[in-house]
Design goal:
The complex is a heterodimer of chains A (436) and B (292). Chain A has 436 residues and is an alpha+beta fold. Helices cover 41% and strands 17% of the residues of chain A. The chains are: A alpha+beta (436), B alpha/beta (292).
Amino acid sequence: MPEQPRDERTIKVDMIARVEGEGALRVTVKDGTVLDCELRIFEPPRFFEAFLQGRHYQEVPDLVARICGICPVAYQMSAVHALEQIFGIRVSEPLRELRRLLYCGEWIESHALHVYLLQAPDFLGYDSGIAMAKDHGPAVARGLRIKKAGNALMTLLGGRSVHPVSVQVGGFSRVPTRPELLGLRDELCWARDAAADTIRWVAGFDVPDLQPGYTCVALHPSDEYPMNEGPIVSSSGVELPATEFERHFSETQAPYSTALQCTLHGETYLVGPLARVNLNARHLSPLAAQVLSDTGISLPLRNPFHGILARGVEILYAFEEALRLIDRYEPPPMAAEPVTVRPGTGMACTEAPRGILYHRFTVDADGLIREAKIVPPTSQNQGRIEQDLRLFMPGLLHLPDDGVARGCERVIRCYDPCISCATHFLRLDLRREGRA
Amino acid sequence: MSDRQENRSRLEPAVRPKLGVFKFASCDGCQLSLLNLEDELLALGETLDIAYFPEASSSMREGPYDIALVEGSVTTPEDAHRILAVREQARVLITIGACATAGGIQALRNWADVEAFKQTVYPSPQYVQSLSTSTPISEHVRVDFELPGCPIDKTQLLQVIGDLTAGVHPRLPTHSVCLDCKRRGIVCVMVAKGLACLGPATRTGCGAICPSLGRDCYGCFGPAEGAVHGPTVPPNTTSLAKQFHHELHLIPAEVLRRFRGINGYARPFHDESRAWDPAERSECRRDEAPDA
């Protein structure tokens, strides 16, 4: 680090906790103004897009799952949809709904982890969910049971919740029986009510004032809350199919990061629960819409600290949707549609718990992957996080260094960044210049 | 494992063993398995002094730690140094998962040109620091116990932590997935469906979930070890590979890919895939890994 003038202050936090990933934050402040803000991601590169080349398309769902232990289904879903586009496969309605059900399980476990164990401790003043349990035992127990219900759904459909094994191009290796699914019903009903309590609980948290002007981006199907289908839309009026993604969204690489940053027409944008709720509120399930409305917090949500509320709403939605899908479930005639390999390129976007996840694959006549491109949600939100920090930081500068650092961590955690998708140590390096 | 090593990995029954959880190159899935112990997590927080677990807590206390759980493989110059520091701080160091135990899926780079890999993924590859290999923790430091799996099985993790806190050296079964299927009466997917199942060569631990869901095992728990009694021997991958080739008609490239997967850098799988590599350029860069 260059030598620092005497009127500057440097604040360092070696690691921001309770995020999934490894990175650092460097902020330079002069006279109360943020001069420079870099969210640096140190996730050791794992080169998925490179080693996928030459692998067989059937291996892809198993391989891409390993990008992220928290949202493996998202990677599997975007991958199979992109590959099915190449092979001209359209799965039967029951298979489509089973995929949706699997996704419900992942949204629940991922969101419940973040709401109860990662972010709620910020609002209530604890270091961890485990520490919080000493004073808020029933709430933490509720969160863990909600999370377990999501994992149970994934385990039934996929064999396990981390890296489930049943997802294939064309469908599943095995589909559940009706009695198996109905066996989850009672617990899902309990969890639905617990999810409503979750929304009421987080709506009561004291939220710092921060109102950035977001461009929200999410999938937007005409008739349901988005998961696996729909055009990509933005609050700025963009609407395009996933096949057009790369013509409008561009990835750039900063020297300080191993994650690529994505922009829409050159501007930062927001993906994830908050963007999804804002753009798709009319497709929320009845109870989710009602409980949200009862909180008195109106849409669109503009404060990133309301991300926790949006996650709560989506947990409730996912339980209601899971129950609806289970109640109408009839096993499909085939667990998977037949696949005829043909060469080509396919693209797909699905809604990972943290936002849209884009995949593009090129396959040759032998079914081997020739090219792969993957754009995870966290790299899309990275620019937005930096801009929010610029807005939020001036209000923190009266605090001692560790207070500034904690405030910055809180902002970053609003996004539930998954740096493993893009990893794990966020180091704040705050340089103060002038009168700051 | 020798008696001497076993003694090293035995903890004195402490009042509250101090735990550290460390991440290297990985997907976070094995750490998540700890948080997925929903019924046991709060009790675990009482039994153990969770001193360092950044994914779950802002409170990060320095070592030494009675137990260090290490997730992920070593893929960068910084991490090759950091693991040495973790070892110094740890009385018992346990690797959790396929990355830490065998290099993980990212060890596929060990057969490739990493510079070309960087250019595939990053527009400005010069900014990216990466070793040419992804290596298991045991190639860098002494490891007291290894938990296999991609991901680990959370009940195995709980059992190992329980054994350690009770002052007992942990033991896990090492027989093959194939035996689990036979015991549970799961229809053999190789016989019934002609699938190239790695179950005969893969270690137990997952619950034989792939065959039970109608598909082939793909080796998440790495190589099985010989018989239940007697000296441990590697699985007979040669016989299995020949079965894939001669009976199931996999071409050599397909046989190679079966073994060069999630645990492709684990010795028995690594050796088998080399035997099926026509290009003979598969000499993996084991020699570049720092000495343990």
